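Hi there,

I know you've been waiting on this one. I reran it after we fixed the sequence typo, so this is the corrected version. Both the input and the resulting structure follow.
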Amino acid sequence: MDIKKRTEANPPSRSRRLLFAQIVEMTGLEEDTVLELISLEWVSPATTGDGHYLFGTRDLYRLSKLSRLCRDLEITAAGGSIIVDLLERVEQLEARVEEMRKLI
């Protein structure tokens, strides 16, 4: 399927999903960067029957965080994605520690 076709679509009228163009606009990331992150499966947008990408709010959150890190720290998207992954892992571990504290 043609990448251009996958990036241009209209979401269902009651969708909470975001289009590729909306993600690019809201995050400030380059189209190629978002496509690379999709190919690396760092974000996993849904695909419509005709092949268009639809992103969830978690994808928007991750891509926005990545964009801020890349801009503020002047790092590549690959480096930023590693940092975002590590930050998410820290958050998960902190939540587990808090759960354990409640059990004591």
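Quick highlight: The CA atoms of residues 46 and 80 lie 23 Å apart.

Best,
R. S.
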